[in-house]
Hints:
- The chain is α/β, with parallel strands linked by helices and about 150 residues long.
- It has one domain: 2,3-Dihydroxybiphenyl 1,2-Dioxygenase, domain 1, CATH 3.10.180.10.
- Helices cover about 25% and strands about 30% of the residues.
- It contains five helices and eight strands, in the order H-E-H-E-E-E-H-E-H-E-E-E-H.
- The chain has helices at about 5, 25-35, 65-70, 90-100, 140-145, and strands at about 15-20, 35-40, 50-55, 60-65, 85, 110, 115-120, 125-130.
Amino acid sequence: MENNQQSEYNIIQTVPFFWVKDMEASLKFYIEALGFTLVNQWTPRGKIEWCWLTRDAIAIMLQELRKKDQSTGEPERPGKGISICYQCRDALALYHEFTGKGIQIQEPFVGNNNWVVAFDDVDGYRLDFESPTDVPEETKYSEWFK
């Protein structure tokens, strides 16, 4: 979509908002391991409690659960059951980048005509990085890369 077309729309971006148990651990994961950049933060008590991160053309927001929020029955792992799918040019390049930084990732596979690189973040949110391919459906990376 060209910039002049964007001005025609009222809603221009969706940004996933993740509740996290430990902001420091989440920031380390997203910045150091996944290569995101911190672009905005809220520090009402001298530490980051909310932030906006970007990488390439995407953004996410993180906010740390406060003790009072956790006592209301919030799940042990806030992201359980939630998946975020990132559409990429080359998901396999990200697989090599992320595993090179020590992230444990299940073997990439082809699903719905996409290479799928999937893993959970530190709070249990499932992150799927996907890129289009013409490799046959259900092919595993080890079967294709020989």
